[in-house]
Hints:
- The chain is an alpha+beta fold and 248 residues long.
- It has helices spanning 2-21, 28-39, 91-97, 100-106, 139-147, 176-180, and strands at 48-50, 55-59, 67-71, 115-119, 132-137, 155-159, 162-169, 188-194, 200-206, 219-220, 234-235, 238-239.
- A hairpin with a 5-residue loop joins strand 8 and strand 9 (200-206).
- It is found in: Cell membrane.
Amino acid sequence: MKAVLGLVSALAMAGGLTACHKGHDRNRLWSIVGTQCANDAGHNPCTVYDAKDGYALLKDRNGRGQYLLIPTLRTPGVEDPDLLKPDEPNYFADAWAERGHVAQSYGFPIPDAHLSLAINSRSGRTQDQLHIHVDCLSPYVRTELDKNMITEDWSLVSLYGHPYRAKVVKSLEPSPFRVLAADDMSIHTLVVTPAKHGGFILLDDQAHALDFASGEELQDHKCHIDDPKHKHMVMDGLDMGMHQNGMM
């Protein structure tokens, strides 16, 4: 019975993703950043527009505190080969530097350990302009990561039924894109969150079958982990609500 329910859930996810792609403007983010924010005197609707460092910060419509870190130059996504060049802006480091906006939007304190950065694979995204999701980590994911012995070598950890590779890095220099540096970057998702004993955990999944490698699934766009109104829903680090993709 559980297997049947799991298959139905996976098919629903696949159908939802396909429906989202059909008739969907995959260049909408670039239109906002490259046209509206770039040409508006106050760079609206972007919260931050840094032409010198080459990135913008845009409040996402999904979630009260979620932001998107977006390059100000045309950059399709995780598969862009320029991301592996040493002189390319470190967008993950830039996104982490702007994390304070998340707590400001939620209206309550959020420890760094409860925050995360995520970029989806080509098949797991709906926009063809690189964007890093900046938001809270799911309470379940935080608990699972803290339970596992994650070192500086890649190891496997299962999260929401998906096989993520995980490793600890001392800092976000060099860029996580360069740390991963896979032959086919397009099928990879990357998630970054602080490690329990310092540094950061990098999480990598690859698109295959019904796994679209959307690392955003590890985030919680309602921030139950720190929302005073929802803390009673969290028991032993597990979010009692449904996973945003219907997987929990």
